[in-house]
Design a protein that fits this description.
Layout: H1 2-20, H2 27-42, H3 47-50, E1 68-70, E2 77-81, E3 93-94, E4 97-98, E5 113-115, E6 127-129, E7 137-140, H4 142-145, E8 152-154, H5 164-168, E9 176-178
Parallel strand pairs: 2-6, 5-7, 6-8, 8-9
Antiparallel strand pairs: 1-2, 3-4
C-alpha cells in the first residue's frame, strides 16, 4: 500500500512539474547572460541601455529578461536576440545593402571580435541573432562547436569576411545561416551549406 501511495505521489509531482514547467532560469545561464552583458560593454555597446533588465540580482528570473526566450518546460535559454546592440534607428544595414553611417568602424583601430565561448552555458540554444552589430569575427570559436541544438544563426549586416565560413562549418545542426550584407567574397559551396543572399 505504501509503495502504491509513493508511486502515485511521484507521478503527481512529475505531472505538476510538467504542467507548470520551469519557472526560473538556470543559474549557469543567468551568469552566462551577465557575462555576455559585460563583454558587450567592453566592446563599446551601451550595455546598461540595451540590457537594462539583465541584473545581477540572484532572485531575478533571466527567462523574463528582454532579448531572452526560454523553453517554457525546461527553463533553458533557447533564443538570444542580440541584434542591433547599438540601438541605432534605423540600424546601419537596410534593404540588404550596407549603408555605412558615421562611425561605423572604418578607420576604427579596434575590430569587434566576439568571444563565442560566451555561448557555452546555453545547452538548448536554438536561435542566435547577432545582426547589425559591426562584428568583424570571432576571438575564439570553440564555443560554436558546443552549440549542438543551434538551428538558426543570423549574422546579417556585420563585417564578416569569407574567413568566417571555416569556423561556421562545424555547426552541423544549423538549418538557417543568414550572412546577408557582410563583406563576403568569392564562391560558396553549391550544396546549400551557406546562405548568402
Amino acid at each position: 500500500m505504501k509503495m502504491h501511495f509513493l508511486k502515485l505521489f511521484l507521478l503527481n509531482l512529475i505531472l505538476l512539474s510538467q504542467i507548470h514547467g520551469q519557472k526560473a532560469c538556470f543559474e549557469e545561464e543567468r551568469i552566462g547572460l551577465l557575462e555576455l552583458k559585460s563583454f558587450a560593454e567592453l566592446q563599446g555597446y551601451e550595455s546598461d541601455q540595451v540590457f537594462h533588465s539583465w541584473v545581477g540580482d540572484p532572485e531575478s528570473d533571466c527567462c523574463g529578461w528582454e532579448r531572452v526566450t526560454c523553453n517554457s518546460t525546461t527553463g533553458r535559454v533557447i533564443q538570444l536576440s542580440l541584434n542591433n546592440l547599438r540601438e541605432q534607428d534605423p540600424p546601419p544595414c537596410i534593404d540588404h545593402h550596407i549603408v555605412y553611417p558615421i562611425g561605423f568602424g572604418f578607420g576604427n583601430p579596434k575590430p569587434k571580435l566576439w568571444n563565442i565561448t560566451l555561448f557555452k552555458p546555453f545547452k538548448e540554444l536554438r536561435l542566435v541573432n547577432l545582426s547589425n552589430n559591426e562584428i568583424d569575427g570571432w576571438s575564439q570559436n570553440q564555443g560554436l562547436l558546443r552549440l549542438e541544438e543551434l538551428v538558426t544563426l543570423d549574422l546579417t549586416c556585420n563585417k564578416f569576411t569569407s574567413d568566417i565560413l571555416q569556423s561556421l562549418n562545424s555547426l552541423t545542426s544549423i538549418k538557417n545561416l543568414i550572412l546577408r550584407s557582410n563583406l563576403l567574397e568569392g564562391s560558396f559551396p553549391a550544396n546549400g551549406t551557406y546562405i548568402n543572399g
